Write the structure tokens for this entry.
Amino acid sequence: MLQHADALPETELSVLFMDAVNDKKLAPGFRISSFTHCAQTGNDGSPRRACFAMFRGYQDDGVRWFDQIIPFEFRQHLPGIDPFEDIQSSSLSSEVKRARARLLTEISACAELLFASQHRVSLLMFLVIGRRFRLLRLDRAGILVTPSVDYIDNPAILLNYLYRSSRLDNDSLGFDPSVTRVLPSDIDFLRMDRAALPDIADLDHSERDLKDEESCESITFAYVRSLFRATLASDWPRYRIRVPDGDQQRTFLVAKPAFRAGDFAGRGTRGYVALDCATCRFVWLKDAWRLSYKVADREGDILEKLNAANISNVPTLVCHGDIANQTTITADWWERKSRIPSTTPPSSTTSLSFTSSSTALNSSRSLGSKKRKRNDAHTDDTLVTQPVGLTPHATGCSAGPLREHTHYRVVVEEVCLHLKNFQYGQQLVSIVLDCMRAHYEAAVKPEIRILHRDISGGNILICPKILRQRDGKKRSIMWTGILSDWELSKPVDTHEAASRATRAHRMGTYQFMSVNLLSDLSRPVQIADELESFFHVLVYYAVRYLNSNCTSTSGFIQGYFDMYTGPGSAYACGQKSVAMESSGVLYMQHPYKPLLFRTPMDNLLATMLKSFRAHYKVLEYDARKTAPPQPPPTPHQRSQSPSDSGDGEDGPQVGPPTSSHGPPSSVSDVNSLVDWDNQDDTPVTSIPTAEDVKLAAKVAHHKFLLSYMAKMLDHPRWRMSDRRPATPETDSRTTDPAGSSHAPPSAASASASVGNGSKRRRLKLKGPERNVSLPARLHASTRRTPRTRVAPGPRTLPVKARS
């Protein structure tokens, strides 16, 4: 039947292929099984098509999706549907284009799910389309594919791949050796269950004055335990993870990630509420694949310096490190194929070895050799060490479209709430002010002096803390701000133009970036750019969550935050550019009128925007003064008479300037009196006034905004009921550029009350109490990466990296 596989529907093809492999035992010790799971159901809850994968052994009680070893993707034959086939897009019909894109999307989704649920370094996958198949190897840098082979005409190649795959160990199959599965029979499984149980000693995290009987020693906030409990899903495996701590290793217990990136390629950031095996305390564990070449320091190294300098309102480092020298190899293969062009066209018998860690499939013989027998010596079929020089060493900063990534983990003490969980406008300003103070301290302390360079809503987090007044007696729970994700930071004195690689990967969340940087990505980041990002964070969360006269929240956000036409364009950032560079006022478009909150938020935003408008006026004027001079008019142009210009006798006349030597007698005399090379053609309205220069200086440094925001917090007109109720307008139609889907579930903070008192009080504080659990979350920002168009090679598919 498989001889006619090109004519078979997908469901019949997959079943026949599975039965053939299982009945003939083509993969000893493995079976191909079908299954469905919750991640593959539609929005209406109806099950989608069955999935297929290779599992170890035979399981009488059925298979579980997270136990699969090598997934299979089946498709009915359709000319051009193979997404790895090098074919001109213009020659494909719209139906084939959609099917091709859908297949690649499903391959990526399957890989992302397995990378997250199985802690993979790499993944092998079989793609079967009718009578042809490919073997895919996926890692965080992209996909390697073998040539498409007709397994009916060349069965030996498929048999070889199936048999060799069944002989690979876990490391060679792409499983992370630093992670161990926690089974229901393990003591750590019970340990996680017990840690998730509600504890009457846990504190509610709502802002309030603490009672004398409420203990504050070694406390845990209830929402942190709730977040951990939510990760213990029955359909998700649990793991024991090792993280480097200097020369030692620390162990943490995790289950389902609290957030994970939406694509397998790129940084692949995942965040876990983890249980520290040494202290039995909850911590935040971030697992990511950082770029190997040095665009920025490792996040843990920066946090270590910040903690040593006593910078306030930043995460507290527990441990961090690269994981067992795990790096991606797809970039290596791209470099190899690009540097050494093939002298012969790929054939069905072309062999391709895949490396994982330090092992590879033996490529000493052609995988299509018909002389090879199944009962050959084990030395021919088992794994062998990768010969030195077979795969070129990755050049992390290569000119190709792919980059080498290194596996990295960092653990911090705090498990925080997302900024969207703030409860009223005054609290929002207070949290942002805390993070601005952290930014200020990091920028001015001599031993640090760095800029964050990725200020966004996703990196400004809420951290409930127990604080004391100066008398040391009265204690209160206050929601403070934590500025996280410092991995893109650079020294303040870095003024050199950014390289192409740096521009591609160091930029932050573009919705919150300054107009100045978005207009030219090569410009170095300045303090004014960072302060402007804080302003945009305030605008976004105020518009989206606070009461205002804005009737279309999604429309304002799309026009202000999501419109970006690229560097060099006029008003490249939409309404953001208009407000910063032209009007100096936040306007709604429908109807066209100023945005108002009718709280002190109006004064705060207006004052900040006035200074930023002056800042851009000064920048524009300075840019004109330093621009290369325009070529002066030629003598012919200067002396051209009205009749020569075609204006006739009644045309415009040249107005002679006054002179102490008397009026000039001709146009040539006028030209002789004018210094054309030093004329300033700047419009009078574009020349900054003394007041403009003074206002612009206020946002060149932190002190004015720190002082002004602190003053505005004491304004008597703040209302604690100024947050708008949740509506479909704010929850469904508006996309959160801060990546709110990466935050812990907001339900954990839904029960928090505003606290006692009618106004938010800025307490005179002595500092955080010792031995207090300080929750927080690190966030992987959505980074805007310029697209790079490269002609695809015959066996390598570059996949655009995402954070």
Notes: The longest helix spans residues 600-626. Confidence is low (pLDDT under 50) at residues 40-47, 340-396, 638-676, 747-803.
